[in-house]
């Protein structure tokens, strides 16, 4: 595995988690944006804030997308079931280098 630079290690990408009309979702329509270093991290962050339903291994949303894919969609441009972004979640990684 190649060694990544500090900038590469702390680069955050945008991921979109969308909602449908199911009353069990945290929101009806629209989406949540999560800034995270990877899709896997974004999913874990989403689950920490919006846990899976009891007894389910499914995420508590309709679907999830990379920024590139979602920002080119009709839902992004026109709204998802008439709704847009409900929340934006940012994660911060500070590399201190082990110095005081």
Radius of gyration, taken over Cα atoms and rounded to an integer in Å: 16 Å
Average pLDDT rating: 90
Q: Helical proportion?
A: 25-40%
Number of helical runs? 4
Low-pLDDT segments, ≥5 res: none
Structural class: alpha+beta
Largest sheet: 4 strands, mixed
As laid out across the biggest beta sheet, the strand order is 3-1-2-4
**What is the ordering of alpha helices and beta strands?**
HEEHEHHE
Head-to-tail CA distance between termini: 29 Å
The tally of domains stands at 1
3D shape: globular
Verbal overview:
This protein is an alpha+beta fold and 100 residues long. The protein has one domain (9-90). It has four helices and four strands; from the N terminus they run H-E-E-H-E-H-H-E. A four-stranded mixed sheet has the order 3-1-2-4. The longest helix is centred in the middle third of the chain and has 11 residues, at 39-49. The protein is globular, with a radius of gyration of 16 Å. The relative contact order is 0.27.
């Amino acid at each position: 595995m190649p060694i990544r630079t500090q900038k590469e290690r702390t680069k955050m990408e945008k991921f979109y988690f969308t909602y449908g009309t199911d009353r069990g979702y945290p929101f009806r329509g629209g989406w949540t944006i999560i800034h995270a270093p990877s899709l896997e991290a974004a999913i874990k962050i989403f689950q920490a804030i919006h846990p899976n339903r009891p007894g389910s291994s499914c995420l508590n949303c309709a679907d999830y997308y990379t920024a590139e894919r979602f920002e080119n969609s009709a839902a992004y441009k026109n709204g998802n079931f008439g709704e847009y972004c409900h929340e934006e979640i940012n994660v911060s990684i500070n590399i201190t280098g082990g110095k005081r």
